[in-house]
């Protein structure tokens, strides 16, 4: 198509030259036409090369587009596969959770049934006497003894669960000197021997009641010669016990107090030096004897 177009241009130019030029310029016009034809040929070659380059570029672009489309399809397939795996995993976890919940509920129900299942104490003397009487009795008596109502009355309910024990026992690891044994000072028994229930706090000498109930509290302290002290057992800010010790001017002595109290969960129970009476001396705790503080709940 491009060659036909160029040939038409060449014919038109040649005709115009032949019509308008004089015979004197005929040889010159031929040269010009020849040069023009060469230029046309060069342009045609240039167009051909450009077309080849464009075709090559178009082929590369088409290849890249194809590769991108293939890559896109691979990613879409992979995403679809991952979504399916995730959905299966979630469904599996949901089913497993429902199964565990159902299984746990069945176990709890069975446990409640077992815990509340009544029982007969076959070893009790009254039961053996009843069976002997039944074997020796007539048909009417045996029927009455074997009746469901009587059997239900013989069923014994299980005993309630015993609460966990609460108890503590601590000693003073060293002597509190006379200069520090001031009024209202809390006596800190810092060497813990027992602390079941974790109610006693040795850093401050206070027992914080973990469970309400009846408790026994006991405490002791020692004085040196010619010394006297009064101590108080305190529940929060209230005195619940007091003890006085006055040692003669020789050796040392100890005193022990005890109280039985109902205290509530969260109450602070501690021993302090009394501020109601005069006092002088140290609170001794050494190798000869240890001052102590203890308490336990009555179940």
From TrEMBL:
UniProt superkingdom: Eukaryota
One cellular component (GO) term of this entry: extracellular region
One Pfam family hit: C1q
PANTHER family for this protein: C1Q DOMAIN-CONTAINING PROTEIN, CEREBELLIN-RELATED
Coiled coil ranges: 33-92
Secretion signal, residue range per the UniProt entry: 1-19
The name this protein goes by in its record: Uncharacterized protein LOC111117054
Main location: secreted
Sorted UniProt keywords: Coiled coil, Secreted, Signal
Location relative to the cell: Secreted
The C1q domain, residue ranges: 161-299
